[in-house]
Design brief:
The protein is 0% helix and 62% strand. It is an all-beta fold. It has a 5-stranded mixed beta sheet, with no helix packed on it. A 4-stranded antiparallel beta sheet has the order 3-2-9-8, with no helix packed on it.
Length: 170
């Protein structure tokens, strides 16, 4: 059985640029992450994950997958998460920080992990890869965050779309 773990610790923070006018940031945002696995230069599998994220420095997290048992001692077994995980955070810059019109800063860290071929039960070998991005995104525009490959040579592309939520959607 081969499983992958994608970790997306992602922290989105509102940023500013010189010469921009201040605006009131939204209280909550919808953040969509588009994960595409690419094989031979063509999209092989695509998934979309959506989180509602409050603009109060709180963490939003999504995990999908399984827990793999690992022997850590003669009579002790721990478990390692294998699958997909996504973290997203908006940081409130404070009332005195101007926010560029229609933009949100996004910091994203991602990693993949998978059981190596021929791993033995209770003593699996777990392969890991990681990537990170720190960028300014236009609200309402889908943007490429990162392209990376895992230990097995699978390539991934991560895009994000950030949209403010209306009062009725919160």
């Amino acid at each position: 059985m081969k499983a992958k773990l994608l970790l997306f610790p992602a922290a989105a923070l509102l940023a500013f640029a010189p010469g921009t006018t201040a605006q009131q940031p939204a209280a909550s945002y919808r953040v969509q992450f588009f994960l595409t696995q690419v094989q031979n230069g063509k999209p092989a599998e695509a998934r979309t994950y959506t989180l509602t994220v409050r603009n109060d420095d709180s963490l939003s997290r999504l995990e999908v997958g399984e827990r793999v048992p690992i022997r850590t001692g003669t009579d002790k077994i721990d478990y390692e998460n294998v699958g997909f995980a996504l973290d997203c955070r908006l940081q409130n810059p404070g009332a005195h920080t101007p926010v560029p019109e229609g933009e949100v800063g996004l910091m994203m860290n991602a990693s993949t992990s998978a059981l190596a071929p021929n791993s033995t039960p209770l003593q699996p070998v777990i392969q890991r890869s990681s990537t990170s991005a720190n960028t300014l995104l236009k609200v309402g525009q889908r943007s490429l965050l990162s392209k990376f490959s895992d230990a097995d040579g699978n390539s991934y592309q991560i895009e994000a779309l950030v949209e403010p939520l209306s009062v009725s959607e919160r």
